[in-house]
Amino acid sequence: MTSTSTPGLARFNTSPDSAALAALHEVCASSAWGSKLLAQRPYATAEDLFAASDAALAELDVKDLQEAMAGHPPIGRPKPGDPTSAREQRGMAGASESLKAELLELNLAYQEKFGHVFLICATGATGEQMRDAVKTRIGNTSEEEREIVRTELGKINRIRLTRLVEEDKD
User: Fold this and answer.
1) Which DSSP letter does residue 90 get?
2) Which of 62, 40, 35 has the alpha carbon at shortest distance from 51?
3) CB 8 within 8 A of CB 50
4) CA distances to 48, 68, 142, 150, 151 from 57, in Å
5) In whole angstroms, what is the distance from residue 143 CA to residue 140 CA?
6) Is cis: bond before 7, omega within 30 of 0?
7) Rounded to whole angstroms, how far apart are CA atoms 138 and 131?
8) Cα–Cα dist 38/20, whole Å
9) Which residues contact 50 (CB under 8 A, 6 or more apart)?
């Protein structure tokens, strides 16, 4: 991405607080993260927005991370009518029924162990890659997994923020 402002970034910078906060909530369900980004407007460049996002994400506590994760549907089950979830989980679209069933079982086991959905930046990943990631990560400690989740959430937030600032709608 270039270091210039885009129409989407300009619109985000000049939107009323309520509209900007709603747009940020679509990116990440953590109210602490959204409030921190809102308070730093205006952003000169998309890179400035990404840096603020990364810094705010690094400061989230366990409760804030749980709030952020609650905004994500389980892998293989995007929210009905949610084009973002469907687009990000496109790798599951052609998955076999057996792979979907296996992923559901793994998701449930993961959720039982960690108390939250399995979070992965699914954009560009195949169903098999997501399944393998759950299998690997289920062996982690809660602390290890929390930091992996923070990293994955950062990737997701950057993809979603990029879409936000590159949108060219009037």
Assistant:
1) G
2) 40
3) no
4) 14, 10, 18, 7, 9
5) 8
6) no
7) 11
8) 7
9) 158, 161
C-alpha dihedral over 152, 156, 157, 158, to 10 degrees? 100
pLDDT-based confidence at residue 1 (cuts at 50, 70, 90): very low
Burial pattern 94-132, b for ≥16 Cβ within 10 A else e, equals ebeeebbebbeebbeebeeebebbbbbbbeebebeebbe
Give me the residue label for tokens 């162990």: 113
63-83 residue pLDDT tens: 999 999 988 877 777 666 677
Of all helices (H) and strands (E), which one includes residue 75? none
Burial zone of 39 (CB within 10 Å; 0-12 exposed, 13-18 middle, 19+ buried): exposed
